[in-house]
Amino acid sequence: MEKESPPSSPHNPGRQTVLSELEEIVICAHVIALANTYGFPTNKLELRLSVKNYLTRIGRTVTEFKDNLSGKKWINMFLGRHKKLSMRVSQGIRKAKLFAK
């Protein structure tokens, strides 16, 4: 006798995310705007601090985060949900190349 698979759900498996979908979209837009404005990528620590600042500004406390600072696992899951964001390491530029015409 074959087992029937459960009906598929339109929702993602697992627990609910800490931030709402809209909040995550706002954070993504902020990170992209910073990268476009200043021309350098955001690293994971800066992203964590941006999330903390956002939560502080709106007066929200997330009990899953220590002092409202997300953990490394949360950041990795966040980046997995938002594929258009990628973490890159900035490379140093030689002074000669910086001022070259």
Automatic annotation (TrEMBL):
It comes from Henosepilachna vigintioctopunctata. The lineage of its organism: Eukaryota, Metazoa, Ecdysozoa, Arthropoda, Hexapoda. It comes from the Eukaryota. This is Uncharacterized protein.
